[in-house]
Amino acid sequence: MKTHINRIFSILIITLFYSCQSGPDLKQYYFPIDSLSEGLVYEYELLNDAGANQSHFWFYKTHSDKGKQMFSGQYYNASGAVQQFTLEEITASKAIAQEYRLFSYDSTGKMLKADLSISKNQIYPFGKPDPEAILKFKINWTDPVETKYSNELNRGRVFQQFTQFPYKGKQLECAEFLMVENIEVEEKDAGVQTLETTTKELYTPGIGLIYYQKKIAGSATYTYQLKDRISMQEFEKRFKQ
Fold first, then answer.
1. Which residues does 39 contact at the CB level (< 8 Å), separation at least 6?
2. Cα–Cα nearest to 212, from 189, 178, 238, 169
3. Is 189 exposed, middle or buried (0-12, 13-18, 19+ CB in 10 A)?
4. CB of 136 within 8 A of CB of 124?
5. pLDDT tens digit sequence for 13-26
6. How far apart are CA 84 and CA 113, in angstroms?
7. Parallel, antiparallel, or unpaired: how do β-strands 170-187 and 149-167 relate?
8. Is the CB of residue 113 less than 8 Å from the CB of residue 137?
9. 2-238 — its CATH code?
10. Contacts (Cβ under 8 Å, ≥6 apart) of 46
11. Domain ranges of the chain
12. Which one-letter DSSP state was computed for residue 48?
């Protein structure tokens, strides 16, 4: 069970002061939807580990589908293996999940897709910030390799404040969010184990997510920061060796 919980976390590592608040449109702080038609790979580096390469990558891209603006993300681990795919619809009020895929690899290296369902699909709010509005996301899935486990993720994301963050010699204006996750892992004939995490996220205009710190209840803290943004061609060159 412990090994499976650790695996779940690695996959998914891939929310108040008063009831209303004035401020800029939070959409300005999300990923730059209108300038990602060609796509960019975001490299996030683990800051609190001086050991081996602990970067992971997201390839973000936008496109139109029947008049709707869509935003996709594909997650690659430090070895360049795909582990997640997300597809969001960009509406007037929020980004909502339309598709979510999780991938595992069997002992031969074959990639298998999890059987997954989305029951709550809110990702990120647009418009004026509301510190009482919780964006809710929920998925259930069965691992295609470790089939005795069934999993449920409940996530809430809420705006905290506008703040500044030092990044590459500059002080960037950021929107800070708190994300709370509860993951339940049920092993057949063995009961349920729960993993809880809280994550501080910082989003900045023109880039999107530049920093996040994830705390696992009763365990470790992981801090990631955006290291670079590169083309898919540059990314592929890294893993051709």
1. 59, 60, 61, 231, 232
2. 178
3. exposed
4. no
5. 543 333 345 679 99
6. 9
7. antiparallel
8. no
9. 2.40.360.20
10. 54, 55, 222, 223, 224
11. 2-238
12. S
What is the structure's pLDDT at 22? 63
**Which regions of 77-220 does DSSP assign to beta strands (E)?**
82-90, 94-105, 111-113, 115-125, 135-142, 149-167, 170-187, 191-204, 208-216
Judge whether 176 and 137 are in contact, CB under 8 Å: no
- In one letter, which amino acid is 22? S
pTM of this prediction exceeds 0.85: yes
What type of residue sits at position 32? Answer: P
Residue pair 183/192 in contact (Cβ under 8 Å)? The answer is no
What confidence tens digit (pLDDT) does each residue in 26-51 have? 999 999 999 999 999 999 999 976 55
Q: Tell me the C-alpha distance between 161 and 174, whole Å.
A: 9
Q: Reduced to 3 states, what is the DSSP secondary structure of residue 26?
A: helix
**Burial (Cβ within 10 Å: 0-12, 13-18, ≥19) of residue 53:** exposed
CB neighbour list of residue 32: distance below 8 Å, 6 or more residues apart: 205, 206, 207, 208
CA distances for 234 relative to 33, 63, 237, angstroms: 21, 21, 5
State the pLDDT at residue 20.
45
Q: Which amino acid is at 53?
A: N
Residue 177 contacts residue 165 (beta carbons within 8 Å) = no
Rounded CA separation 55/47 (Å): 9
